[in-house]
Fold this sequence. Notes:
Layout: H1 2-21, H2 32-39, H3 73-82, H4 88-96, E1 108-109, E2 124-125, E3 135-137, E4 143-145, H5 146-161, E5 167-170, H6 175-189, H7 191-197, E6 211-215, H8 228-236, E7 242-246, H9 251-254, E8 259-265, H10 268-277, H11 282-291
Parallel strand pairs: 1-2
Antiparallel strand pairs: 3-4, 5-6, 6-8, 7-8
The structure holds zinc ion.
Amino acid sequence: MGKKIKMVIAGAVMSSMIATNVYAFTDDTLHRSSISFIEKIVSFITSSSNKDENVSHDFSMYNDIYYYDSNNLSRYKSFSAKNPNVSPEDIIWLVNANLDRNFYDKAEKIENTEDEIILVNKYNYLPNDYVPKNLVDIENGKQATEATAKAFEEMKENAAIEGLSINVVSAYRSIDYQKNLYKQYIKRDGKELADTYSARAGYSEHHTGRALDIAAEDMDMNNFGNTQEYKWVAENCWKYGFIIRYTEENKNITGYQSEPWHITYVGTDISGVMHNQNISSLEEYFVKYVDYSVNN
Ligand SMILES: [Zn+2]
């Protein structure tokens, strides 16, 4: 009897917490499709314990932050008004990463596809005719860029020394392959759900040849998060230039559910910075180290 009451109270507290922490992505009216996804999301950003919803931040005070962009001032203000518990420092990089917009809204075509690092997400897509230049065989009949394959081999060897087996399930995927895959998922689950786990054609990291879906010996990537192999990869992959791209922590940034099996090769310089600076998403890295730099 007492237990039931406690549970009800806990539920009420929980839902009020979620309500204050819900992180509204959109600039305009929320689409129904995005609401249900967002409702599942509790903001990763530490919210202040005080209710300061009526305080509007004076963003001009933050113009000494090197990634502050005066062109985005009105967007900072409006996004901040919708997310009163998010710090101005976070509002600034989130808006710079376009997270105040609906996914796929005003998405931009990626021009520099041969850059050391490419940001492919729901705001940045690859050209239709793009095929990575240096694809090589990786394993299990899959292909990846040469640097990705080399780094993976090294990581695999070192995991094997620990008695762990990591294997490639999926790697490079052409735009046509992705188009069909996404279509099948829509058929099965509907567009709303499919968008939370599958990329639209052109928007897939697998198109870069730098992303790998991996699994332990059972080759079941859906089970990967429960394995010793995953634990090892989560701890060590940065040493080989990989990041786990879609995590529980950053799902409101990437717009994808957590995918423990999906790793992306970014090179050790970048994975090292992300590891040392505790940066959980490539989106945040891009704002702070690619789009804006301390010296500008
Ligand atoms: Zn993947």
